[in-house]
# Entry
Amino acid sequence: MVKTRILFLLFCILHSAFCIIPSTASAKTKGWDYEIASAGVARADGYYLLRVSANVDSKKDIGLDILKKCAIHGVLFRGFTGARESEKPIVDSPQKEQQHASFFQNLLEQQYANYATSLDQNYQTIKTANGYRVTGVIQVAKDQLRSLLEQEGIVASVRSSVKKPLTIMVVPMDHWCQERGFWEAFEDQGSIKGRPDYERAVQDSRELMAVISKINTMLSDRGITLQHLSQAIKSNTRRAGRQLITTSRTSGAQLEKSSIDELNMQVKADIILYVDWEIIQVGPKHKVNYMLDAIDAYTDKQVAGIPQGTGMPSFSTDAGALIEEAVVANMDGFVSRLQSHFQDCVESGREITLEIGVFENSPTNLETEFGGDELSEIINDWVAENTVNHQFNTAETSETTMLFTNTRIPMSKENGTALDARGFAQELRKHLRNKYQIESKVYDSKLGYAQLIIGEK
# Structure
């Protein structure tokens, strides 16, 4: 009897001890000791394909589960390096991980298998000085994860945050236009320069139209809004560039402002997708070398690209078909980078440049005081108040000039209409007129640049 009681007490002690040991899953993920990187293009839209390496303490921690959890954690909070550029984490603020700790703990400990899978069920393990290193390839459902976080109110909804989606225009690269004679020369201050003749290219090149149509279809099938180059040219009246010249009040020197580029007056897309290609004969077959370069029309910065690709040899001679066969393997990753840029614009604001000038005959300049504050201070305060998270850089300030760069403005106004650099400058013009009775005029040379000149309407 005594022996039985002793055994029973020993069982209770051991049972209690095991009950207070944290679960293996919690112990494994506590330190989040892992690395992730792109493993190529996922087989389906809305997914990342990632190579994950996780360090664990013991053999019982080895397996696909730790790789899945680390992959999801990385996509949520760290981001990763892709083949050509980095991908930002879905969660845009480090504080949100702590603010929603219970939600993320449940996601990473209980629901992770709904959002991460191993396509081949394989992984590799090596012994390290402190334990083991597990490596494998995991596919993460990034779009489903983002949708879940949007439903919980943890991140902003891309679709509901802006009324007008980003639009993309596919155009041929300058090199392609020059080689095929779609190029026009013009004189600029005594120098002969050249520019693409898109209108003639659209009219004369069936190959160009086939390539544009095929790329448009591939992007449209992946949820991207397109604007066709030919339709944009038809719907816009061609205008010659104009130039605005102002004169400094102090020195009398003339200050030249950028002319309104004729292309930007025709192509009102947010992103310009430049394409170049060359068809090469390989015996009885043909293959295509191609390049894609997506440029933000507001900033002229690259947001995505395929610097050089080569398709497999094919009996087809159709440029559109060859481009489709060559590009399809890279298209999902390319679109993913475009969508990441879109999300950044929605969450952090669209980047523009705003310049302030003064007409020669203006009775007011930027050093004129109103209620004890110089006009330059008033304008600076207004820009700070109306930018997203007060993000802007005052690059230059003088009696007659102010230059705001890296200025992040909302994607839309309060009434839901889209906002660009000109619209932002118009809001400032109304503010100066209504509150300080200052007249001014707004000029724009491109979607992401506007100039407000003080002194007259």
Q: What stands out?
A: The chain has 15 helices and 23 strands. Confidence is low (pLDDT under 50) at residues 6-28, 159-163, 237-261. The longest strand covers residues 271-282. The CA atoms of residues 280 and 341 lie 34 Å apart.
